[in-house]
Amino acid sequence: MNLNKNFSLLLLGQSLANIGDVLYMVSIISTIFVLTGSATTSSFVPFTITSSMFISSLLTPLLVGKVNLKWLMAGLQIGKTILLFILGFMLVGVTASNYYLIFLIIGLIALLDGCANPIRQTLIPYYVNPSQLIKANGLAETVTQIIQAVMWFIGSLFLIIMSSQQLVWLAGGLFIVASILLSLLENVADNRTEAKGKFEQITEGWVTLSNTPVLRKIAWLDLFETMAGTVWIAAILLVFVNDALNIGGQWWGFINGAYFLGLILGSVYCINYSSIIEKKLGTFIFIGSILSSLVTLLFSINSIPLVALLLSLCAGIFGQIKGIPQQTVIQTSVAKEHLSTVYTSLGAIGTGIFGVGSLVMGLLADLLGIRIVFMISGILLAVVSLIVYKSKHLFVRNIIEFE
C-alpha cells in the first residue's frame, strides 16, 4: 500500500500517542495500587477514562466547525501533553490522602482523548483516496491492536527498571513528538458554513444517524455488539479461565493475547484482500458477525484450554472482518463534513454501553455463572447478524460524490 504523507503523519502521530496512553495508564494504575493497596480503587482508572470519553463524545460537536479538523486534532494532543506533564509533577507529592487528584487529571486527559478519536477517524477519508479506504482502515486497526497487545506487557516491564514518574515522563516525550507530527498535517476543507445553535451542534450527529438508514442500523449493531463484547474484557475472561476451564492464571494471558492476535490477523486479512471485500461489504459484515456469534457460543460450552485459545483467536479475526468493512460503510455514507459528528455519536453509544455492559455482565456472571454470560454474548451477536442479513442491501459503499 502506498501511503501518502498526511496519512503516514496521522498514523505515526496517533500511534505514538497511543503508546504514551498505555504507558501512562500502567504508571497510574501501579501508583494508585501502591498508595491504596486496593484493586477496586485501581479499577476506577479505566472507569474514569471511559466515563470522561463518554462525556466528550457528547460535547465534541461544539468544537467541530469552529476549529479546523487538523488543528483540532493537533490541539487536543498538545492539551493532553500539558496535562500529562502536570500529572508527572503531581506524582512527586502524591500520597494516600490526596491521590484522588490523579483521577481529576486522567479524567481531563480522557476528555480530550474522547474528542480526538472521532476526529482521527474523520480525517482518514480526507487524506486517503476512496479506493484505498479498506486498506487504510485495516492498517490503522492493525497498528492500534499491535500497540494494545504489546505495550501493556512492555509497560509492566518498564516498571521494573523505572519509577512511575519516569514512565510518565517517557509517555510525555512521546506525546510531544505526536503533537509535532499532527501539527504537520495539511489543513482540510470543511464546507459547512451555516451557523447553528449549541443544541443543534450537539444533536447534529444523532439527527444524521436517525435520518441515514444504514447509519441507523449501524447504531443498533454497535449497541448489541458492544454489550456482547464486554465479555472479552480481562476481568470477565479471568473468571472464565478460573471457573469454567479450571486452569492456571497463565492461560488467562494466553487466551487474552490470542484474542488480540486475532484482531491483528483480521486486520491483515482485510488489507490483503481489500479489493474483494470492497465489492461485497455487506456480505463480509454478515459473515464476520455470524461467525463471531458461533465462535462465542462454542467458547461458552468448551472446557478444553487449547480449543479456548483457538476460539479466542477466531473471535478476534471475525470481529475485524466485520468491523473494518463497517468503518468503510460509515465513511462513505455521509458527506465528510458530517463524519466527525457521526463518529462522536457512535462513540457515545460505544463508551456508554461498554461502561454499563461491563457492570451488567459482571453482575450476571455472579448471578448466573460465567458460561451463561458468554452464551448471552453469542445470542447478542446472533441478533447483530440477523440485523445485518435483513439489511444487507444497505451495507455498500456510497459512490455519490458529495459537494
Automatic annotation (TrEMBL):
Membrane recorded as keyword: yes
Kindly give the InterPro entries that the UniProt entry links to this protein: MFS, MFS_trans_sf
Q: Which GO terms describe its molecular function?
A: transmembrane transporter activity
> Where in the cell is the protein located?
Cell membrane
Q: Which residues cross the membrane?
A: 21-38, 44-64, 71-93, 99-119, 139-161, 167-189, 218-239, 251-269, 304-321, 342-364, 370-389
Gene3D superfamilies assigned to the protein according to its UniProt record, in alphabetical order: MFS general substrate transporter like domains
Q: Which SUPFAM superfamilies match?
A: MFS general substrate transporter
Q: Main site of residence?
A: membrane
Q: Which UniProt keywords apply?
A: Cell membrane, Membrane, Transmembrane, Transmembrane helix
Query: What is this entry's stated membrane topology?
Result: Multi-pass membrane protein
This protein's record includes keyword Cytoplasm:
no
Q: Which GO terms describe its cellular component?
A: plasma membrane
Q: What is this protein called?
A: Macrolide-efflux protein
Q: Which organism is it from?
A: Mesobacillus boroniphilus JCM 21738
